[in-house]
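Supplementary Text 2. Reproducibility record for the structural model of the 236-residue chain.

All settings were left at their defaults, and a single model was retained for analysis rather than an ensemble. We include the record here because the model underlies the residue-level annotations in Supplementary Table 4.
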Amino acid sequence: MTEELFREDAYLKSCEARVIEIAEEGIVLDRTCFYPTGGGQPGDSGTIITAAGTAMTVADTVKSNGRIVHVPAGTVDGLAVGDTVTASLDWDKRYLHMRVHTALHLLCSVVDGGVTGGQIGAGKGRLDFALEPEKVPEKEALAAALNGLVTADHTLDISWITDQELESNPDLVRTMSVKPPTGAGRVRMIRIGENVDYQPCGGTHLKSTGEIGRLVIGKIENKGKQNRRINIALAD
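Retained model, structure tokens:
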């Protein structure tokens, strides 16, 4: 199992690690700060630097058969199991993902509907909600509510609850299409402010909402009888 350093410290930009497998899909390390694709958040890219100083580009990071795999942009040369390497993120892209991901949690907190899907990008994102027509928010009011939460600079905290606690509190899960992973004995929870948002999430987030910056609302699209897609973007 790879130690998932990004779960506790999303601001960790690089780490030393040991190669434990070189698979057809890519490189598996004993520890990593690279987030693998999941929960609507893209996998990280960056570089793996060998002890000899050779830099290998990581194009993507994915989960495969329970392993975190660093997918190289080309062939894997000059690297062997047991080697010590330095894994370094494309931090600028990751930080954009963090800003958008935290913003989507704010969006989830102000829209009264179950989440049916979502996607995080570098500077923009969207959530799909199961909404009756009369509950679809107006863009101006929604933008004001979101930017008010950004300006308030609410702190974000990470905690854990047991699988049993989550099972006893099903309302904590806002996503209707994807359930948080259970079976490991505990579930990672994200809390924003005192009562802004509290839900299971394994992704990378900011320390406070003020880091998001000003948000703009894009299209609110009709994606079905009751499904509405709300697009948001970072203003800068």
